[in-house]
């Protein structure tokens, strides 16, 4: 009797005719990232959690793990693919194992400013890249801005020759390695969580970051100079596990899609201002001199770094590079 009851129960579950207690449990979205809460990405993750829990109460719960507290660089992508987390937003520099096309964003001096980056991301080519890794079970939901990168070091960097021989921390990106080799510096790949200590102990002498990452990780306390080079961009792709996302009930997924659009607009509206305020905070802390380049000095950095494009043009695709360059002209 007991045995036949249990068979009936199992069959009913398999057919979906009986709702076990856990079927009513909310879907959990673990959102892991490597930066602080007070950064564009950190704020975006928290706003996403707030809106989801307001609008999908009881249906979806979002757990945000900032500052590499759950998974750091190198591990977060693997965790997404294994289903240990459901959303992450790695910097565009961290996708080269999955697609070479996104190396585009690391090319030095490609975009004039964040407005140009934004125009490209919204173009058909930019939007196409969001869907370029679905065969690998990665769906891009949106681009989130952080901002333009600045060089930092313990010596003033005015012209490329000043960087010669220095060790610079880079993200896991072959383009960024080549960028520093182009000015005869020594790039060293290092996860984000290790950068502060790396700079403090002299394992590396310099780095490249937007102001929000410099300030929120207190890097300015261990870097005497920042050169406002705006030589490249550090932006993110908000991604999810394709199978997880497609397996969500349609009405839940469509509400989540709407929330992503809303959060993206907010993050991208506020990112530049957040970086400006963090620049001001660094100036107020008086730990670090901010060097503003003359147009001629900036031209020297561009001339030294731009040959890197040639090395990656084949992998990225010349048409994509042209589309990105076209975005420098405001329509
Ligand atoms: C870095 O490693 O420098 C950045 O990608 C960190 C981040 O997520 O902003």
How many distinct beta strands? 11
Radius of gyration: 22 Å
**Overall 3D shape:** globular
* Ligand roster: (2S)-2-hydroxybutanedioic acid
Structural class: alpha/beta
> Which percent bin holds the helix content?
40-55%
Write the element-wise H/E pattern from the N-terminal end onward: HEHEHEHHEEEHEHEHEEHHEHHH
Number of domains: 1
CATH superfamily: Bacterial extracellular solute-binding protein, family 7
Note the gap between the termini. 75 Å
The major sheet is characterized as: 5 strands, mixed
CATH class: Alpha Beta
CATH topology group: D-Maltodextrin-Binding Protein, domain 2
Q: Strand order across the biggest sheet?
A: 2-1-3-10-4
Keywords:
5-stranded mixed sheet; disordered N terminus; 11 strands; 331 residues; 4-stranded mixed sheet; globular; D-Maltodextrin-Binding Protein, domain 2; binds (2S)-2-hydroxybutanedioic acid; 44% helix; alpha/beta
In a few lines, what is going on in this structure?
With 331 residues, this protein is α/β, with parallel strands linked by helices. The protein has 13 helices and eleven strands. The strands form three sheets. A five-stranded mixed sheet has the order 2-1-3-10-4, sandwiched between helices. The chain has a four-stranded mixed sheet with strand order 8-5-9-11. It has a two-stranded parallel sheet with strand order 6-7.
